[in-house]
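It is worth pausing here to work through a concrete case rather than discussing structure prediction in the abstract. The textbook approach is simple: state the sequence, then state the predicted structure, then interpret. We follow exactly that order.
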Amino acid sequence: MSVNEIHDKAKSGMQKSIESLKKDFTTLRTGKVSTAILDNIKIDYYGTPTALNQVATVLATDATTITISPWEKNMLKEIEKAIQSANLGVNPNNDGENVKLFFPPMTIEQREENVKKAKAMVEKAKVAIRNIRKDANNKIKALEKDKEITEDESKRAHDDIQKLTDEFTSQADSLLKSKEAELMKV
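Step two, the predicted structure:
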């Protein structure tokens, strides 16, 4: 494996960590409800755990309400059960046609709790980025040890990996800043 390949692989891995962080952020509730809060809910669809959006239309009808319209009416009870067991802090309301979730406005405590969760998600992403850096640096050291690259090339490669790490770490920090502002906005 060449230094360029190591660099590209590290960059790609770090980019995936950032993408994963963005996906994790969608599960946090902000002032306005998002249907992404239901992304991890699975419904027992004839014995197969199936994503909620694969058995129903899920819409945020306003800032505090999500309406779930199952494609098959017999799925209403399953959807209701799955939402209750997901422990989202709201009770599903089944009107015989749809399941509606009414989210109360978020308290300042809930907002602060979500900021803490966001910070933990960022920390997890940074740990992943640092692990990728460590892995890349170990591969570079191995190339130098095997005399495939010179000491100068090794130093330059380590510096490049560090620059990548700094770039993606600061990207994670700026994502946190904007998410924090979004979470605390009333």
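Step three, interpretation. Residues 3-26+107-184 form a domain with the Topoisomerase I; Chain A, domain 4 fold (CATH 1.10.132.20). The chain is about 55% helix and 15% strand.
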